[in-house]
Amino acid sequence: MDQQKICFIGAGNMTRSIISGLVHSGYPAQLIQATNPSQGKLDALKADLGILVSQDNLAAAQAADVIVLSVKPQLMQQVCEALQTVDMSQKLVITIAAGIKAKRYTDYLAQDIKLIRAMPNTPMQISVGMTGLYAPQAISTEQKAICDRLMSSGGEIVWVNEESELDQVIALSGSSPAYFFLLMESMIDAGKEMGMDEDKARTLVQQAALGAAMMAKQNPQLTLGNLRENVTSKGGTTAQALATFEAADMRGLVKKAMENCIKRAEEMAKTF
Ligand SMILES: NC(=O)C1=CN([C@@H]2O[C@H](COP(=O)(O)OP(=O)(O)OC[C@H]3O[C@@H](n4cnc5c(N)ncnc54)[C@H](OP(=O)(O)O)[C@@H]3O)[C@@H](O)[C@H]2O)C=CC1
Ligand SMILES: O=C(O)[C@@H]1CCC=N1
């Protein structure tokens, strides 16, 4: 697998996250290329990670064994249509775009392709990412291994059997780092209003979040409810905070947010 030439079309946040994981896991940087219309992100990727860069999508796609489509969903059709002259018969195409169904890519690229839809998240940048994967048709063991290698270099992967499950992956892990950041921001803001210095508040909050996530991960025999109860002394401080969240139906709010996340992915699938 580490001989495959990989080309990322679009060099934004997610491409940077994936390539960082890949390079830091030992994948040869000279086999990785990223394309982008503006030069600044390309220069930064080249300087930081030593990969090849180009503004020429067509040439980069032609030269690649694996093409990772990494532009915003609203640009995907236009970007793919410009690649229709590339013979994809021996290539693997991976798309990370939210909300575009697999079958659309056959239309956009005007040929049969071997495609995998991936739904990663930005923590891939530091090798603690989470990626959901879906292949609409049978793909070879070798192609599956290529995708596993590519995405697991930045964290964990999970294959789903139905394309609709990818929308659930978006709500659960693709978008969710942002939910946790919002909660952390809210806590830091509250800490500041109470008089805590911002840097100190951030240190306290981010370490608590990291600790909670690591405890959840390292104690699979315990439910998250168990872990929560272990913090919550009867008649103590945590109970008061949790009661405030429950009284405001935090669980219902989270569910609504996730439903709206999925609804947006479904709308995007109709639009693009
Ligand atoms: N961010 C996230 O957490 C996640 C994102 N995704 C998906 O990843 C994809 C990329 O998202 P993200 O990285 O956040 O977005 P960004 O906007 O950061 O990156 C998209 C990049 O595509 C570039 N671009 C625009 N037009 C072209 C073109 N014609 N050819 C090549 N590159 C082009 C943009 O360049 P410029 O800025 O110079 O215009 C930009 O650098 C999206 O489809 C999104 O749904 C999936 C999971 C998580
Ligand atoms: O917000 C978005 O649409 C993308 C997909 C998941 C995370 N970011």
Automatic annotation (TrEMBL):
Q: Quick one: where is this thing mainly located? A: cytoplasm
Pfam families membership? F420_oxidored, P5CR_dimer
UniProt-listed Enzyme Commission number(s)? 1.5.1.2
Q: Where NADPH is bound, by residue?
A: 57
Q: Give residue ranges for domain Pyrroline-5-carboxylate reductase catalytic N-terminal.
A: 5-99
Which GO cellular component term is one of those annotated? Answer: cytoplasm
Q: What is this protein called?
A: Pyrroline-5-carboxylate reductase
Q: Which organism is it from?
A: Shewanella baltica (strain OS155 / ATCC BAA-1091)
